[in-house]
């Protein structure tokens, strides 16, 4: 018996050969016909138009969608839940390049490179810091947060974490529940936001929560643009209560030409590109679950919780 897979993300010849060993037949958007819709069991990737056609087909067999991204907030999660479809994401797939980008942000400001970048005269800048001087809190203790924490530990940083319940995670000195932020130490110098985009995290970093951190050296967002109230952040950058910021994600992408973000000197915008660089392939992530799926075992890797939205 074969299982039909719709390849909405690219597969190599070697990938297809591997799938054939598992008796998985690959269908592509180029060769799929309406007669195939009812037989598709797995979607490797996402395209709303074609997935909707499959879901509208009576007695369709679609049971599993492998997302090409970590975030799934752009998908109709309620509808997928209603159809009892298993959804897996690529959380952690880009942890290494993202974490290295975060380290580059920190070094850029801590070692004074932001000053020398535009300076065209001799004036040594000595208001620099080592990472041991800059305690860090990371909001989101998943694979990306853990990878950032691992790099920071190499340089002697003190690293705290924030997650939903405050449950301990090995690479953090201490972890706090997201509804108990008053317990976070008062000397935090760097806040790194790796939160997912959900209804609970929308505009989470607003004036109220940013006010918890006095004289913050650096605010970083590599989570979701929806989690930050950008005007409140800009106000903080302008009044000096936050010295620097680095945003890889923003509410609107691409950022509008007339956005104030472009003109904030103490802000770096990397335009949703920290993921770039060699990382674990989508197919490798997918294959961690395929054998279990084909033998009717529960999937255990990167399964999206529809209630939480990630």
From TrEMBL:
Which top-rank group of organisms is this from? Bacteria
Q: Which UniProt keywords apply?
A: NAD, Oxidoreductase
Q: Any idea where the D-isomer specific 2-hydroxyacid dehydrogenase catalytic domain is?
A: 9-273
Which Pfam family, an example, fits this chain?
A: 2-Hacid_dh
The answer, when asked if Nucleotide-binding is one of the entry's keywords, is no
Q: What class of enzyme is it?
A: oxidoreductase
> What are the residue boundaries of the D-isomer specific 2-hydroxyacid dehydrogenase NAD-binding domain, all occurrences included?
108-273
The record's listing under PANTHER family reads: 2-HACID_DH_C DOMAIN-CONTAINING PROTEIN, D-ISOMER SPECIFIC 2-HYDROXYACID DEHYDROGENASE NAD-BINDING DOMAIN-CONTAINING PROTEIN
Q: What is this protein called?
A: 4-phosphoerythronate dehydrogenase
Annotated source species: Weissella paramesenteroides ATCC 33313
Its lineage opens with: Bacteria, Bacillati, Bacillota, Bacilli, Lactobacillales
This chain is encoded by the gene named pdxB
